[in-house]
Amino acid sequence: MRYRVMRLSGRIGAVFVAGWTALAASVIPAAAQELSNALRACTTGDYPPYSVGDGADGYRGVDIDLAEEFAAVLGRPVEFVPVTWATLRTDFAERHCDIAVGGISDQPSRRVFADFSIIYGTDGKTPITRRSSGTDFSTIEQINRPGVRVIANRGGTNEEFARKNFPDAQLTLWPDNLTIFGEIEHGRADVFVTDSVEGRYRVRQHPDLQVLHPETPFDSFGKVLLVRKDDQLLAAALNAWLATQLATGSVDRLFDQWIGPNASIG
């Protein structure tokens, strides 16, 4: 699936960029002046191509680049703070997150503890299986059967989707999103339903796996960055900056680097 982001062209695009650029010019200096400390960006680091831990080198990914570039515009250092999907709600407040990044879906339950940026793309859930399974797990009906071993990482939208759609299957909750693909690869699980963008990235690292129908996922949802609750200045600065990145194609180029035809495996 081509990652779908906002695309503008011609005069409309020029007007859009000019408007957001003017807003950014007014709110970003104010945000930078009022908030001179490090920008605390919380992330799980287990959801490439959005965010992945890289050992001593910290984190990398599309959302990591976005957070670093936004902090640079503010003239602030960025500090990445580790969180988990299962504890994101409590971690966001307790660890004093300014923003949260890493492939976060627009879910109403998350609006309780954070505000959302504008949507910077859409994605959807698709099955990941062994290539030897062919098309055996292509549909929800094929997966939702007794004896089918579904696996999902604990605490995020993948678990929610699995619980809602596969009540008759055998569900295993996995503690992290880093080693879960090995469970399928080694035959200890049959299928993992996750975001198609992640699936397209991961199967390049696991040649025995396949992502099924990424062009037509089971559902569709927006991807956002979380912002500290009721911080209108920071939210306005983030949205103004992010809108210019969308309008100028910068977000598209980031995804091309990670999942495009010429992307490297890493």
CATH A-level architecture of the largest domain: 3-Layer(aba) Sandwich
Beta-sheet strand percentage?
15-25%
User: Taking all residues together, what is the mean pLDDT?
Assistant: 87
The helical percent reads: 25-40%
Q: Describe the sheet with the most strands.
A: 6 strands, mixed
Element order, helices and strands? HEEEEHEHEEEEHEHEHEHEEHH
Say how many strands there are.
14
Low-pLDDT runs: 1-16
The helix tally amounts to 9
Oligomeric state of this protein: single chain
CATH homologous superfamily (4th level) name of the largest domain: Periplasmic binding protein-like II
Number of domains: 2
CATH topology of the largest domain: D-Maltodextrin-Binding Protein, domain 2
CATH class of the largest domain: Alpha Beta
State Rg.
Answer: 19 Å
Terminal-residue CA separation: 20 Å
Categorize the overall geometry: globular
